[in-house]
Description:
The complex is a heterodimer of chains A (289) and B (467). Chain A is mainly alpha-helical. Chain A has seven helices and four strands, in the order αααββββαααα. In chain B, α1 (5-29) runs antiparallel to α10 (427-461) and α3 (114-130) runs antiparallel to α8.
Amino acid sequence: MIQRVPSTLLASTLLSDLTRGHAELAGLQARIASGRQIEKASDDPIAAASALDQRGQIRRSEQHDRSLHDAADWLRLSDDALTASGELLASARSLIVQANNNLGTTERESIAVSIEGLRSDILQLANTTRGGRPVFAGTAAGSMAFDAGGAYVGDGGAVVRDTGDGTSLVVNLPGSTAFGDLFDALAQAASDVRSGNPAAMASSLVRTDAAAQTLANGQAVVGARAQQAERLAAQTGVKLDQLRGQLSELEDIDLAQAIVDLKVQEASFQAALGVTGRAVQPTLLDFLR
Amino acid sequence: MPTFTSLNTALTGLQASRLATEVIAHNIANVNTTGYTRRRLLLAAEAVGTVPAAYSRSDTPGHGVRVVEVTRMREAYLDAVFRDATAAGAASTALASALQRAESVFPEPSDDGLAHEMAAFWDTWASVANDPGSLPARTSVLEQARSLTDGLHDTANRLYGQREALARSAVSLVDRVNDLATKVAELNTAIQALGDDDLGSADLLDERDRVLDELSELIDIQVRTTDGLTSVSVGASALVAGSHAERLAAVDVADPALSGLGLQRVEVQWELSGRPATISGGELAGVLSAVNDAVPDVLRDLDAVAASLVSTVNSLHTAGQALDGSTGWSFFDPAATTARTVVLSADVDGVPEHLAAATLGAGALDAGIARALSSAGGLAGGPDEGYVRLVADLGTATASAMRRSSTGDVVLARAHSDRQSLGGVDIDEEMVALVSAQHAYSASARVMTAVDEMLDVLINRTGVVGR
Lengths: 289, 467
């Protein structure tokens, strides 16, 4: 049996086909214009969920990246302060050696004053601040790590930066660990130099050497951590690039593919228009006299 | 054999052809009328003697043509299939568009959605972790928290607004169902008065079928026609019986599943008995499932995200220690755990010093708690995970509703074309019928002329020989 195809049915079928073709065309065009594959979650719920996860991971990695730069900065400041302190301490040591060379009272006095001057320079370095916060004071509040007398007023708390999911890096060295009894030792040395007692000066020299060792140890720790921070920063950068690449793969369209799809859809829409133009027009009326 | 029989026979031919032309004219005039069913003229030869009897003999071949009826080309089965498909399609389309609207409240994945607000909130804690003594960093935590809670309020309020609008549309849909049911009952009365074999009742029958089609878009109905009267039932109860129509009403009823959200279930009941009506199809069913299930589900998930945000942040924050050494401050108000109400607690609002960035007992500038909060976005079972699940679930529900809706469209298009293929007007076909009717008319007229000429010969020229 031949299925009847009344004119109204033909018209409505053609119209709905055209509408569908047009909607698909519009969807493809919108997709290309926005450059995004997922406009809303229902476009691809699974990809949308992974994209959201990916975005969260990127945010956290960016956080870690910022923390690592902050950590590197903090460690550099500490390192600089410790290096400069080491140099100053070395000059103090040579002054003590010089003072132990049977010098007169006046000369010893001037050496003692110099040693005290070096001590206060190192004290200033030990109170190096970053954004108003002394870097050697641990987690204590206050504007100084060591008071004017050279006593440690910070605490032993660790300043920690998160460097990854579940990993972290301690970026500070408490002043008590970094400088030990350096300030006492230098104060003692100055008074020993003043007194001119060779045995006392010799023992001051030993104490100064011990303080220098402490400084060097601290410097080694800080240097190693600074290197670690740099390495981690580089790794985080690579990870961020990877994550962004994956996100782009999820969210962004493959332009070449999309344009090919658009062209195909355009062609079939044109064809549908042509067919409609031909199918709608003629009726028997056109052929009856 | 009477002399004028053939004149009369030709006359029935003329009348039948004229009626055929009228039917064709009516068909063509209504070629684009929604719900119009094409008519076909059913003719039969007028037999001579319908009751055979002794000695009854016929000396004529027949008495011409007789109009049996004007048939509406319609089949109850195709109507039922079409209406079922309409109801099913309308239900899934209504649900799909409600879900699409709900989804538009969550512009994800993008830099504008709640996921972004939440990530930015954790980020501000990272700034505090890097610089716990900085009041600007602490203030920015409070600002971002406010922006996040505003986002949650806004999202929840928009969803509540959408649900409100859906509930209103359920009420107006029920009103339209009542109107249409009344209309069917009125048409029943009119058709009964006219008699369903009356030629003029065909248009009323068409109108009733069109109203039933419209009704099936709103609600799933079963239709039965006996003796020209159509009865319509919804579920197992009658909506229209003869000239009487029942009424439905949309009523808010308490529901323990929705009371947690401060909502009531919208139920459609029979107005007279107050019993709930069983509605399983049509736009009304889609709207009801959106209003009672789909949208409340999203709201529940959103509230769970808010509650998880409050508990995650507060459990860490209350255990911490503020800049001034004080402890026990809540970050969010622990009593407000829904998306609409979540708010900063009075402990910290406007007091950035009270942000407990430090671990209890550690130095004032310790940042243990701030660090933990800055990475809380990646917590398994945390608010971010809950939110991603919400977006994915809503996306999946929307996508599958849209798929069902487009499948429904295909089924409906099939049912429509089956019905149209039987009852739709085809211009070509009508033209052919018109040409035939025209020819038949001319031929009958020619028969009449021939008989007329024959009579002319008999009356005027017979017996005038030699005159």
